[in-house]
Amino acid sequence: MKNRLNKELVIRLLKYRRILNQLKNLGFEKVFSNNLGDAIGVAPALVRKDFSLLVLGGNKRGGYNIDYLSEQLNRILGKTREQKIVIVGMGKIGTAIAQYKGFLQGDFEVAAGFDVRAVDVPPGLTMPILSLEDLPEYVAKNHIEVAILSVPEDQAAECHRLLKEAGIRGLLNFTPVELKTTPNCIIHNINIGVEIENLFFQVIKNGLPLHLELADGAGSEEDDSE
Amino acid sequence: MKNRLNKELVIRLLKYRRILNQLKNLGFEKVFSNNLGDAIGVAPALVRKDFSLLVLGGNKRGGYNIDYLSEQLNRILGKTREQKIVIVGMGKIGTAIAQYKGFLQGDFEVAAGFDVRAVDVPPGLTMPILSLEDLPEYVAKNHIEVAILSVPEDQAAECHRLLKEAGIRGLLNFTPVELKTTPNCIIHNINIGVEIENLFFQVIKNGLPLHLELADGAGSEEDDSE
DNA sequence: TAGATTGTTAATCGATTAACAATC
DNA sequence: TAGATTGTTAATCGATTAACAATC
Questions:
Q1: B64 touches B56 (CB < 8 A)
Q2: Mean pLDDT in chain B?
Q3: Residues 6+ apart with CB under 8 A from A119
């Protein structure tokens, strides 16, 4: 039982699905490996290989059927499941994410926000903001499995512990503290500071394109989404 | 002139630097490849290989000197440069990022925000919020090279075009539209929706740890920060 | 000396791409 | 048939890890 559906593949599948939905909305029926590869920035051969691995067939000259692919990807990726999350840390980033429109198309719902302090509920926010003390009970009662962590750096470790004890199985961590995945709790870290530092470095390294190359090893280079 | 300092390596170096600064603040003087590997989640051999590649030597029994490593990483990563960015799209996410505290430690400054609409400057925000029309002139005058894009999905393409025309060299894209790197403008996409979808999928796949494995190929698996 | 850690080579692992036969 | 695209194999590429000699 090898590692079918590895990390990179799953991300590609999620991106395929998004593109397919957009194409469907535009009234398209067929799509070629070519198109999908361009759209997500990989070689067409990889698109074909992905679908081949999942036993999703196309037509030798007609490409792939969008409706069929879309359905199958929903099956594989588990579209139907109700997906509720909580946000721990209702500061600027937390409330911004709580109001993120993209969640609607993704079938997510932010069930509640939590904070140590009493926080004014910002206008337009529909979910309750509760005290951190109530987290364990809320998570258990509402079967919450996934959380977003957006507290200040010095509270990250403590909240992490609290969330694991409450039985959270997946955590999207926006704090600068790099948390570690354990068998019971998968962590994905998004470190905005490092992202910006990295982008700056790549820009400097990339240098001025044709004329005026930088001194040392400043070749241009492909680089894509993370 | 091969690809020294590739994408993964640079990210590791940025993370090493952050850890080293923290250790320095705690009064440490030496660190072992062991420690750094644990801290950022890679094998100690890779830490040693990284430093070896950059000709940063340690002591066969005393590990690495933190001050020295830190200095050298600053040299390699270009710490000193003044780093100003602008944010395009001062909605919830844009303003949240504008107030992000982590920037201070990273030597960044958000020079200005831009928006199509007249936006009330939120309390506590020190930078000006200008009209998108003023972007090209502002970017040219202040030598801005890097921008953050946080507009609604339907404005992403247009703003992307505008930013490239204005001469922006690097763009951190928070919109759900996947933008493509060109020779003149490096794009890093952060798609929060996909991140959450991905986390949900990994959680379901990870299943219940020991008892009650899921049906098909639901093995547990290492997974780390993106 | 004994023990521990670096520095470096070789092996491994895995993902992507190139290429092409099959076929609609 | 000619042309285009899939499906699949083999080649490539690159990153990580294992292992161990060197050495402090």
A1: yes
A2: 87
A3: A90, A113, A129
pLDDT digits (tens, 9 = 90+) for A57-109: 999 999 999 999 999 999 999 875 678 999 999 999 999 999 987 776 667 88
Distance CA B24, CA B71 (A): 12
A172 touches A146 (CB < 8 A): yes
At position A89, the amino acid (one-letter code) is G
Of A1, A81, A206, the CB nearest to B186: A206
Q: Is the CB of A41 under 7 A from strand C?
A: no
Q: CB of B69 within 8 A of CB of B47?
A: no
A204 at interface of B, judged by CB pairs closer than 8 A? yes
Helix spans in chain A (H): 7-25, 33-40, 44-53, 66-77, 92-98, 102-105, 135-142, 156-165, 192-206
Q: Quick one: pLDDT at residue A105?
A: 66
Q: What is the pLDDT of residues B82-104, one digit of tens each?
A: 789 999 999 999 999 999 877 76
Residue B148 Cα, gap to closest chain A Cα (Å): 9
CA distance A184 to chain B (A): 6
Indicate where chain B has its CATH 3.40.50.720 domain(s). Answer: 83-190
Q: Does B176 touch chain A (CB under 8 A)?
A: yes
Q: Where in chain B is the domain with CATH 1.10.10.10?
A: 7-77
| Side chain identity at residue A222, one-letter code | E
List of residues 6+ apart from A182 with CB closer than 8 A: A164
- Estimate in Å the CA A113 to C1' D20 gap, whole number: 53
pTM of the full structure: 0.89
How sure is the predictor about B225, in pLDDT bands with cuts at 50, 70 and 90?
Answer: very low
Res A218: pLDDT: 35
* Inter-chain contacts counted by CB atoms under 8 A, chains A and B: 224
* CATH code of the region B7-77: 1.10.10.10
Looking at the structure, give the CATH architecture of the domain made up of residues A83-190.
3-Layer(aba) Sandwich (3.40)
Give the residues across from B185 on adjacent strands: B182
Instruction: Tell me how far apart the alpha carbons of residues B127 and B132 are, in angstroms, rounded to a whole number.
Output: 15
